[in-house]
Amino acid sequence: MFWLLIAILIVQRAAEMAVARQNEQKVKKQGAIEFGESHYPYIITMHILFFLSLIAEVLLMNKQPSSWWLGIAAVILSVQIVRYWALCSLGAYWNTKILVVPGVELVKKGPYKWMKHPNYAVVILEILLIPLLYQAYVTMCLFSIFNAVLLSVRIRAEDKALQEYSVK
User: Any transmembrane segments, and where?
Assistant: First the structure.
């Protein structure tokens, strides 16, 4: 079951990166400006290391699924629904990079009606829940900290870019 989860997550991330590349091309044709280029490689690296850490911790420490695995899995699936709701709400404006088309209105539909950064909330929950599924507490704690640091930089950069270039 562990390898199936890893495979699903890797396929999901690869598909998202493909969509992000397509969306990047679309919005750059509309004049999108990229922000946060300096921290972007760290975000990619953190996500790769998250999976490697999870795999290493589960295998090397012989971690087994939590006795709460069914409930945790249900929450993870619910979080995925929110992820795709957020992505679909942004449409071509969704990206893994910070790309802002000057003069375009901020999206205020879907989960963006209630929350400024729902996809980041999803990532926070995933970094907590996925390791929790296999009791990989070291990965959960370390990468929650790494993610918090990176998101603090990322959200500031994104908010500044959106404030300067988007129509409110």
Answer: 1-21, 41-61, 68-88, 123-143
H helix runs in 30-117, sequence order:
40-60, 69-90
Task: Specify if 129 maps to a domain.
Answer: yes
Radius of gyration over alpha carbons of the chain, in Å?
Answer: 17
pLDDT per residue over 77-94, tens digit each? 999 999 999 999 999 999
H or E segment and range at residue 99: strand 98-100
Residue 50 above 70 pLDDT?
yes
Instruction: Give how many domains the chain has, as a whole number.
Output: 1
State the residue range of the domain holding 69: 65-168
- AA identity, residue 105: E
Distance in angstroms (rounded) separating the CA atoms of residues 128 and 94? 23
74 within a domain of the structure (yes/no): yes
Closest CA to 130 of 22, 20, 47, 61: 47
What pTM value is reported for the model?
0.94
pLDDT greater than 90 at residue 166: no
For residue 157, pLDDT over 80 is answered with yes
